[in-house]
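Please go through this chain and its backbone structure tokens and walk me through the local backbone shapes. Keep your notes short.
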Amino acid sequence: MKEKDNTINNSINITERIINIVEYIKFTYKIKTNTALAKIIEIPQPNLSAILNGVEKYQTEGFFNKLVDKYPIINKKWIETGQGNMLNDQTDVEELEVEEIEKLPIKKIPFYDVDFYSGFTKIFNDQTITPSYYFYLPEFHNAQFAIKNSGKSMSKELGNDDILGLREVPEWQNYFPQGEIYAVVTSNDLRTIKKVRRDKENKNLVLIPKPLDEDKFDYPDYEEVPISMVTALFQVVASTHSKKLAL
């Protein structure tokens, strides 16, 4: 029974990743329907519908190959396993060899010595504020800036006092990869860091905490915030313990 449950969970995860990919492709390349996309990647439209509905026998390597042949920006490994990033231009530096890391352009990241919950709005709204310092770590290659984390609501994923690399998500109202960790800013000046997805009606963002087991009763299973109240969304693209910073 346990083995069967694991298979079901894997199927759900890969289906969600495929749905995210299809939504991204349709939005980015202005493809209006699944029928049009099926024609582009040269598979029958009923097969694509079955794939999006989680029918495993159609979620084949042949389908993945057709998808990445037409859209090479898509990371095939991410679709199949969830490892790395959805897009190939989001380099997963943790899996690069040392010599490959050395070829990356050195990009120093501005660090603001504030935590997201108390000091972020000021630096976000005032571009004249000077960073506390700049640092370089390969895994922060895709971050726009870094700040401190605080609190225990995401302790299974992020440590209290960790340094977080953030990147603003443009036009997130139209599309963002669901199930990832985001920093959310609302119109009533509240800020939170959670795993985020949309609700079924596409009216709210569902915020999901990941506390340690001993703290789980301090947090709800999830909260919902109206999309109309969200003013900015930042993806957490990297994190590290503060002691690791190479200044």
